[in-house]
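Review form for a predicted model. The reviewer records the input and the model, then writes brief findings.
Reviewer: anonymous (R2)
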Amino acid sequence: MKKILITLCVTACTAFATAKDIKTLTLTTNPQMHCANCETRIKNQLRFEKGVKRIETNVEKQTVQILYDADRTGSEQLIKSLGKIGYKATPVKDAAKASNAENKSK
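Model under review:
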């Protein structure tokens, strides 16, 4: 019985020690996505970046949502990757701040 409890404790400790830091990054792109080919191009570029778990694109909202392991890659690396195929990516929060600043200055 002791062996079973020790094994369970070691397994639980190992699981907590190897927990991943999963984050979500939502981007807008310039030029904007306008068709399925744009979505496919973006997904194909990001698919092989280390740590990327899931990529969701939305043409209507003009967003790219990336679920990634922050221990293996960062938001700057993902943005740089999109730059390689001609897309300037901006995090949605930053885009909203820039839009608000433009509206206030008018």
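Findings: The chain has one domain: 21-105.
Further findings: The chain has a mean pLDDT of 83.
Recommendation: see findings above.
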